[in-house]
Each structure stands twice: as structure tokens, then as C-alpha cells.
Amino acid sequence: AGYTIVRRFPPSGMADVYVARSPQEERVILRCMVADFARQRKWRKVFFESARVMGSFDHENVVRLIEVGTEDEVPYMVLEYVEAETLRTLISRRDPGLAAYVIPLLRQMAEALYYVHQQGYLHLDFKPENLLVDQSGRVVLIDFDLMVPKRSKPFRLKNLPGTFAYLPREALVDHLVEERTDIYAYGVTAYEAVTGHQPYEGTKIEEVRAAQADPEAEPMPPSRHLTTIPAFLERLILKCLANHPEGRYPSMSLVLKALATHS
Asked: 127-162 as b/e, with b when 16 or more CB fall inside 10 Å?
């Protein structure tokens, strides 16, 4: 479609992802549906619906859609290129910038998720791999393939959404999702950004998943990993991670308010 491939990212999900140059010689991100998914009407619909919604988004902390189309029966979308690393990379190498700028980073993460919710959608795959952080400290939320319209009450999905480490008990056990599903994922991501650990850890993945699904199991307090964590931040993270949805913040607006109070 007139784009020149510069390099390819490791395969993941329903699309192959490339850094490319546009006909105007601008660097962009090109997402092309994997052939097996492109042949299935269901997944083509998901891809184009995701692109349609993303095209309506306009926020500095949400990736910008430039174009969507089809070439040789392969659907593709073109996204802005952000010279950045994922939050996962920064956590893995214990980047000193995380400790120095953690509150601004957490606030931008919250702003992105709040914006998506305000537009009437759940992200359902909020995690460090889907957050880019550029050299200036700007955070950009990406990957909206699992996004679904928000409803006024919790609702059940046929298939388990997202990545299990970022899903609350009600989603793991009953496939129930709502705004507070994303808020839980925000809590896990914030916990990792602050401590370098996940709230539930174990030697076997089955043990971790069982702990997450246990209504009585509590996450390890972040202060066990980082004794210098501000008390308000520990309270905020643990409230996002409450076992029962009623114990969490009901809206990302309240998370932002709590962060603003201590900025």
C-alpha cells in the first residue's frame, strides 16, 4: 500500500507489526492482520471495529490512528510511530527513571485509561507491554484489539479477555467485566512499576492463578518490596487491587483525584 518495511517486531496476537516508512518518508507503525485471522470474518470485524473506534480517539496518552485499509485482502492499520520503550522493558531493567518519575507516569497511565472509559469503552488488556514511555516521559497506551463497549453494569464475555496476571477474580472465575476490571489491571501495572514485582507471585503459575482467584487471598503489600513507598501510593494501589469489585475505585476519575492530591 505504498509503505516500505524498515523492521519487524516479534509476532504477537492477530497482527504482524512493523516499523515502516510512509510514501511521504515519515516513520509509522504498520499492523497487518495475520493471514489465519484475516480469513475469518469474526476477526476481520474485530480488527476494523477497533480501527474505527481508535480513529475517533484524540488524546496525547493514546496512540493515534493514521489510516486503515486493505491490500491484497490483508487488512492493515497505520499508527503514529513513538520513539519509546515499553513500560515492561523499563521495569525489567529496573530503570532509575521509574523511581524518579513514578507519580507522573502513573498519572499519565490513569489519564489514558480514564479517557478510554470516557469514550465508552473498556481496554481489557492494560499491562506494561501495552504502555510506551518515550524519552520525555510521555506515556502512550497501545493495542486495542480486545476493547469492548462499556455497559452500565458488569457483563459476561464468552472468552476470557486479556492476560490473566492483570485480571481480577470475577473475570478469571466468571468472565465478568466492567470498568473496575481495567482499574484492577491498572493496579497490577502500577504495583509492578513501583516495586518491580507482581502482587501475586509463586514458583508455579498455577499457584499464582489460584491465589488471584481466591476471594480470601490478599496481595503482598508493596511496602514489603519497597519500604520507602509513600503510604498514600500503597493505599491507592491496594484499593485498585481489592479482591471484590466493590472495594475498588468505581472510576478512574477517583484514581486521578487521589494522585493529584499528592502530586
From this structure: bbbbbbbeeeeebbbbbbbbbbebeeeeeebeeebb
